Automatic annotation (TrEMBL):
<keyword id="KW-0479">Metal-binding</keyword>
<dbReference type="InterPro" id="IPR018110">
    <property type="entry name" value="Mandel_Rmase/mucon_lact_enz_CS"/>
</dbReference>
<dbReference type="InterPro" id="IPR013342">
    <property type="entry name" value="Mandelate_racemase_C"/>
</dbReference>
<dbReference type="InterPro" id="IPR029065">
    <property type="entry name" value="Enolase_C-like"/>
</dbReference>
<protein>
    <submittedName>
        <fullName>Unannotated protein</fullName>
    </submittedName>
</protein>
<dbReference type="Pfam" id="PF13378">
    <property type="entry name" value="MR_MLE_C"/>
</dbReference>
<feature type="domain" description="Mandelate racemase/muconate lactonizing enzyme C-terminal">
    <location>
        <begin position="90"/>
        <end position="187"/>
    </location>
</feature>
<dbReference type="Pfam" id="PF18374">
    <property type="entry name" value="Enolase_like_N"/>
</dbReference>
<dbReference type="GO" id="GO:0046872">
    <property type="term" value="F:metal ion binding"/>
</dbReference>
<dbReference type="GO" id="GO:0009063">
    <property type="term" value="P:amino acid catabolic process"/>
</dbReference>
<dbReference type="InterPro" id="IPR036849">
    <property type="entry name" value="Enolase-like_C_sf"/>
</dbReference>
Length: 340
């Protein structure tokens, strides 16, 4: 193994459970990394290749060994998230996050099953209107590029009547985004177009201005908070900060980014409500629609349970993945500091 001993000694494999399936998973796994600055989280989804995983590692090392920009606020306005559940469950979840957590912006996952998606969105709108008043609550939907160009246009013309703030990544390619953007009135936000972009350079970010209205930026998939700040400056679009369904430790990086930027919209950071277990005693969740900007460290009892949950073969999988990510271009700037 080519990993420095100091790094190997600082990593802890973990697994945490979700309340219900989200993006095809019911358990989130990864590695926590302890360094002189605090704790970082390396948890790229399985479909990320080594170079993209290297960005996640750079973000984790930044948290553990580096620093974050100066915060401009102490708390961040956030949205709640409704997974791909039935309309009945969606209604219950929306009332909970509005009445108990104070969230007034809801992100609803869509799957491409237009009938079920519409029922879920309709139930969300009805619940928001019932609790907050007609049209007060905001709905944004996240498609994760589940539609073709034609499907996106058909779906969004049908769903626009529910008062959508925006649709996140309706289609995958920039060409299709351009076409959909020209045919619908619903604003488009881009997520995968940023976090899965190979270069993340100025030219690629400038192109997004022509095909989208909002940029979704997640610090872990782009290489950390400082790199995300650079991308926010390059993209020249209103920014919404989101995260990759990390534990509460990983969520802190996204909170740091949101606090360092001038952002008016609610950020996609209310993911703690989706976690059934965590690496801290109580997951970070919204209060009165806000989340406190902070760093957290694992709770010993919660961390012990998270370690016990991960299978030994999966723990080895993560250590092997860490070694490959360590060799990536994104992680190499951290070698000297980690090895010092």
């Amino acid at each position: 193994m080519t990993l420095p001993g100091s790094l190997l000694q600082s990593v802890t494999p973990f697994a945490i459970r979700l309340h219900r399936e989200f993006r095809g998973v019911t358990v989130r796994e990864g590695l926590l990394i302890c360094g002189p600055s605090g704790w970082g989280e390396f948890a790229p989804f399985d479909d990320y290749g080594d170079e993209h995983s290297g960005r996640w590692l750079a973000s984790a090392l930044e948290a553990a060994y580096g620093d974050w920009p100066q915060a401009k606020r102490e708390s961040v306005n956030v949205n709640a998230i409704i997974p791909a559940v039935t309309a009945e469950v969606a209604s219950v979840l929306v009332r909970d996050v509005v009445m108990n957590d104070g969230c007034t912006t809801i992100k609803v996952k869509v799957t491409g099953d237009l009938s079920a998606d519409e029922e879920r969105i309709s139930a969300t709108r009805d619940a928001l209107d019932a609790v907050l008043g007609l049209g007060v609550g905001r709905i944004r939907i996240d498609a994760n590029a589940c539609w073709s160009r034609q499907e996106a246009v058909i779906a969004l013309r049908r769903l626009a009547g529910y008062g959508l703030e925006y649709v996140e990544q309706p289609v995958e390619s920039n060409e299709d985004l351009r076409a959909v953007h020209s045919e619908i009135n619903v604003p488009i936000a881009v997520d995968e177009s940023i976090r899965k972009n190979k270069n993340l350079d100025a030219a690629a970010m400038r192109e997004l201005v022509e095909i989208a209205d909002v940029a979704i930026i997640k610090p872990a998939p782009v290489g950390g908070v400082w790199r995300a700040m650079e991308i926010a400056d390059l993209v020249k679009l209103p920014v919404v900060v989101s995260n990759g369904m990390e534990s509460s430790v990983g969520l802190c990086s996204a909170l740091a980014l949101a606090a360092a930027l001038d952002i008016d919209r609610a950020c996609g950071l209310g993911t703690g409500k989706l976690l059934a277990t965590d690496v801290i005693a109580q997951s970070l969740v919204p209060h009165q629609g806000l989340m406190k900007v902070q760093r957290v460290a694992p709770d010993p009892e919660a961390m012990s349970a998270a370690q016990a949950l991960i299978d030994p073969t999966r723990a080895k999988f993560w250590l092997d993945r860490l070694e490959r990510a360590w060799q990536s271009a994104a992680a190499k700037p951290w070698h000297e500091k980690v090895e010092a």
